[in-house]
Amino acid sequence: MSFQPDPPEYDQAVPPDVSPTVGFAPLTVTFGGTAAADPTVTVLDLDVDGDGHPDFTLADFATPPHQVRYTYLTEGLHIASMLVRDQTGQFRATRVPINVLPVPDLPPIWDAFRNALGRGDVDGAARSSPWKPASCYRRVFDDLRADLVSVAAGLGAITTHVVTPGYATASVVRVSR
Length: 177
Known about the structure:
Layout lengths: L17 E2 L2 E3 L2 E6 L8 E7 L10 H4 L5 E6 L3 E11 L4 E11 L4 H13 L3 H7 L9 H6 L4 H6 L1 E10 L2 E8 L3
Parallel strand pairs: 2-7
Antiparallel strand pairs: 1-3, 3-5, 4-6, 6-7, 8-9
């Protein structure tokens, strides 16, 4: 197959509806193929893994809501490609990057944070956190500087509940002595 540019009337290919395009592994992505509802479309090929061969075709998108889902198991940048061809032979080809991130290992991050607090190292505690809001706690840490060692000593291990690209929840047991 040779590359042919889109005809002039297709001055810009419209990327397929893809959601999400970034997240932690395993990442399940929904690909929209509303072009499948157009009776003039003869080919709709979606290559989700970048191997050059379609993983989904027009038949996979035929029934409403004209979507397919694919789960990326491995971390890294994956390029999904969609080719849509109509009865006249005109086609549109688009590519969408899918960024699959490694899930952060929260216990070592927590341990570094807790250890810095245990040393009374406010700057180190703020640096050990990958989250921007950690710096907003600097004033609280400064106010508690005399008690940080005992506060940190009472903090237990972290138990992670939910981790998403913009949100994480976890719990910590605090032992009072």
